[in-house]
Design brief:
- By secondary structure, the chain is α+β, with helices and mostly antiparallel strands.
- About 30% of the residues lie in helices and about 25% in strands.
- It has 13 helices and 20 strands.
- It has helices at about 5, 15, 20-25, 60-70, 90-105, 115-120, 130-160, 185-190, 200-205, 235-250, 265-280, 360-370, 440-445, and strands at about 10, 30, 35, 50, 55, 80-85, 110-115, 165-170, 210, 255-260, 280-285, 290-295, 310-320, 325-335, 340-350, 350-360, 380-390, 390-400, 410-415, 430.
- The strands form 5 sheets. Strands 16-15-14-13-17-18-19-12-20 form a 9-stranded antiparallel sheet. It has a 5-stranded parallel sheet with strand order 7-8-6-9-10, sandwiched between helices.
- The radius of gyration is 22 Å and the shape is globular.
- The N and C termini lie far apart (about 50 Å).
């Protein structure tokens, strides 16, 4: 690990929020606000029945919270799942190794899932030599193999999470094989495998997606295939595959696209910073200059002006909090009846927000919904996600029913450096609202 990172002062904001997380565990032990009697708790600390239904025996996030609360432990462990994806020669291997070393040095258990395609292609298979049916069958079997490998490592990670935080780093994920086939072929594979859908394979399996743009786009002088004997892509094909790969992940709630606008080391550092922010680590000692910006949009243009996009329905609710300085919300997002669920805890330090987000299941979402803060409206959004100019954007369109102050509201958000702001040319921007507290979702949802 280089000296720059060795000198970093690390403050784990996630650990600072444990006192509030334990309050959430108490919520999970209530039914419509009524505390559960000891006789209603089974040996695992789980409430035996909720709304007349037996609880699942599967270990879930709420199970861990309740166990921690009963044992009085001061340490809450977690598993963070991050996918590194992108076109050929994008810097994935270097970034994964840097992040692996960093998290091992601060005491996390790091599990790295190798790229399944490279493993299979190393057998002597040449994808270009296969006919169309052979290519489709290969991608189907590749995805099945990938899912099995991931499931095995994911299950094993739970054992480590009993004693330390765990980060699982995937060299490509479940949506990557889809970028090598046509849309109608993906529909065929979904018909063959009824349990496959974008929300489950893209949103529910992973906590974070980082797309590193290929060097073939913006750093052509550094494009090389020498570090991977199974790759044969020309610069033109590398650009095409990079774009297709990025599109398959569009719609994930925590996706970051890191391009080649800086030197390579800064690109890798941005990847590290992005992961640290997602898990609630505050790094003191360097700043890659990559933060969220928000802009008010005057009106929604016709769909024909947009590049390829993914549109999701998103529902936010704020929960009763144990402190005025802590905001807690739950969210569900999805399409076609398939949903992903999460809850987020946000605090502020020196005026800057720090947010930790955790995926939960439908049962936990239903229980936490019982503590929705009646002083806040539910927020309904159509979220349109797209990539433009090799950057990832989200357009939130507020919908009825809503707080009167939200009517007609359209907000564009993305991550960028302060000196590198590029706005989509097809949008009419009113003004920047990044630091305008009036447009914080917490204030927009508040009942006056």
């Amino acid at each position: 690990m280089d000296s720059k990172l060795e000198n970093l002062c690390v403050e784990n904001k996630y650990e600072k929020l444990i006192h509030h997380t334990k309050s959430i565990s108490n919520i999970l032990k209530t039914n419509n606000g009524r505390l559960v009697n000891t006789s209603e708790i089974n040996n695992n600390g789980l409430k035996k029945k909720i709304d007349g239904q037996e609880n699942s025996t599967k270990t879930s996030f709420s199970d861990k919270l309740e166990d921690q609360n009963q044992s009085g432990s001061d340490d809450e462990k977690r598993i963070h799942r991050v996918v590194f994806t992108g076109g050929p020669c994008a810097g994935k291997t270097t970034s994964i190794n840097r992040i692996k070393t960093f998290f091992e040095n601060i005491g996390w258990k790091v599990l790295c899932v190798p790229e399944t395609a490279t493993t299979l292609l190393s057998s002597g298979i040449f994808f270009a030599e296969l006919d169309e049916n052979g290519k489709l069958d290969f991608q189907e079997n590749l995805l099945k193999t990938l899912l099995q490998i991931e499931d095995t490592i994911n299950e094993t990670a739970k054992n480590y999470a009993n004693s330390k935080n765990v980060i699982i780093i995937y060299d490509r994920g479940a949506m990557d094989p889809i970028s090598y086939i046509e849309p109608h072929e993906w529909e065929v594979l979904k018909m063959r495998n009824p349990n496959w859908n974008e929300v489950d394979l893209r949103d529910n399996r992973y906590d974070q997606i980082i797309h590193l743009v290929t060097a073939a786009n913006g750093a052509e002088q550094f494009y090389t295939l020498e570090n991977n004997n199974t790759r044969t892509e020309s610069i033109e094909l590398a650009r095409e595959l990079d774009e297709r790969c990025a599109k398959t992940w569009v719609g994930h709630p925590c996706m970051d696209v890191i391009g080649n606008s800086t030197v390579f080391d800064t690109k890798v550092t941005k990847a590290l910073q992005t992961v640290c922010e997602r898990v609630g680590l505050n790094l003191k000692g360097f700043d890659a200059g990559n933060r969220k910006r928000k802009f008010l949009v005057k009106q929604l243009p016709d769909e024909s002006f947009f590049p390829n996009f993914e549109e999701l329905t998103v529902v936010h609710n704020y929960l009763v909090s144990t402190s005025d300085s802590i905001q807690v919300r739950i969210r569900k997002s999805g399409k076609g009846g398939n949903w992903s669920y999460s809850y987020a805890i946000r605090t502020y330090e020196d005026g800057l927000p720090n947010e930790t987000r955790t995926q939960i299941d439908r049962r936990e979402y239903a229980i936490l919904s019982k503590t929705i803060d009646s002083n806040h409206y539910t927020i309904y959004q159509r979220r349109r996600c797209f990539i433009w100019g090799h950057r990832y954007y989200r357009l939130d369109i507020y919908e009825e029913p809503c707080n009167p102050s939200c009517r007609g509201l359209i907000i564009l958000s993305f991550r960028t450096a302060d000196n590198d702001i590029i706005l989509p040319s097809f949008l009419q921007i009113d003004r920047e609202i990044t630091n305008d507290s009036y447009f914080s979702m917490f204030n927009l949802s508040a009942k006056k």
